[in-house]
Amino acid sequence: MMQAQFPKEQTADGEYARQEDAFQDWVTSDGSSSYPAAKGRYHLYVSWACPWAHRTIIVRTLKRLEHVVGMTVVDPIRDDRGWAFRNGPGHSTDPVNGFQFLSEAYTATAFDYQSRVTVPVLWDSETHRIVSNSDDDIMRMFNQAFHQFTESPMDLYPKDLQQEIDELNVFIYENVNNGVYRAGFATTQLAYEQAVKKLFEALEKMENRLSIRRYLFGARIVETDWRFFVTLIRFDAVYHGHFKCNLRRILDFPNLFGYLKDLYQQEGIADTVNFDHIKRHYYITHDDINPTGIVPLGPDQDLLASHGRDRLYGNNVAPFLS
Predict the structure, then answer these.
(1) Hey, which of 105, 146, 169, 222 has its CA 20 to 30 A from 215?
(2) Burial of 4 (0-12, 13-18, 19+ CB in 10 A)
(3) In this predicted model, what pLDDT tens digit does every residue of 275-299 receive, in sequence order?
(4) Has residue 294 been placed in a domain?
(5) HSE (CB half, 13 Å, CA atoms) of 257?
(6) DSSP letter assigned to residue 72
(7) CA dihedral of residues 227, 249, 50, 298 (deg, nearest 10)
């Protein structure tokens, strides 16, 4: 059996079992929590490489919160000391706390923290502790809690779609977002094959869904689209080869590829995608999967080409499994 990338998150059957988020407090607009929304109080620690962190960067961008919540990017190359703050192309030292490693934020919040250190992290500069390391929750906070500090009217979690959004989020997370990791970090043939089959069955369902809708819920872009996007944008560059998810490329799904280009071309989104960080992180950091550390040059994909999705403006919100 191959060595697991994260031994504590591996089952006896060789399956990857992702750890739960450790910190899940909330920033609230009305101050009903211990963390009232405020300009300049909170800071986001992220990696351009990580899809979970990428979701929060996207919502921060779309909600125009750059002047409200600061952001620092870690070095994409992670060693056994974890995510590090270093100066380099697209990443820097920590201007808020002077941390050298993100693990210092975790032990400042829980001195006996022993689990894997992950991004994103939403840090509170007043209490000097982590508010949340849950990308799901941080996305919702950015969408809801900071309205008084932004001119963006965008609502990525509209009330009339919340039940359907929650349902589709679970399906996409289990089969696609985490599915690529369950394939890539599997340590047995059976665990790998089961994960890949579920992944591509789910991609086929999404391909069919997007044949009659411009976005996952019709004409509106919601949080589920961005949760899906962060996996799609990494798929051909990383997951197809590095994680052996190679039955098909996203390029080979006409609707998925058009949808991917459509989302990539939304205002501000291309600036949140850093393929250099993405590829160097996966291909160098996962040395058990890629021991040579060679980073591939490809793929050659034109994400700015016409996406052809303009004709699909229907707002069909039928159950996603139909």
Answers:
(1) 146
(2) middle
(3) 999 999 999 999 999 999 999 999 9
(4) no
(5) 14
(6) E
(7) -140
Q: In terms of domains, do 31 and 144 share one?
A: yes
Alpha helices of the chain — where are they, by DSSP H? 51-62, 103-109, 135-144, 162-172, 179-184, 189-209, 223-234, 254-264, 275-280
Do 163 and 131 belong together in one domain?
no
Please classify residue 317 by burial: count the beta carbons closer than 10 Å to its beta carbon, then call 0-12 exposed, 13-18 middle and 19+ buried: middle
Q: Over the stretch 136-147, which tens digit does the pLDDT of each residue have?
A: 999 999 999 999
In a domain, 312, yes or no: no
Written in H, E and C, the secondary structure of 106-134 is HHHHCCCCCCCCCCCEEEECCCCEEEECC
> What is this structure's pTM?
0.93
Amino acid at 20: E
Verify that 124 and 188 share a domain, yes or no: no
- Could you tell me if 50 and 169 lie in one domain? no
Rounded Cα–Cα distance for residues 237 and 234 (Å) = 5
- Is 196:182 a contact under the CB 8 Å cutoff? no
Asked whether residue 213 falls in the same domain as residue 92, the answer is no
Instruction: Let me know if residue 304 belongs to a domain.
Output: no
Strand bridging mode 35-36 / 27-28? parallel
Residue-wise pLDDT for 182-225, tens only, equals 999 999 999 999 999 999 999 999 999 999 999 999 999 999 99
Question: Is residue 5 one of the residues assigned to a domain?
Answer: no
User: Which CA distances in Å does 224 have to 154, 162, 168?
Assistant: 14, 10, 7
How many structural domains are present in the chain?
Answer: 2
- 140, HSE (Cβ side, Cα atoms, 13 Å): 16
Residue 19's SS3 state is coil
Lookup: tokens for 45: 């620690």
Residues with a known catalytic role: 50, 181
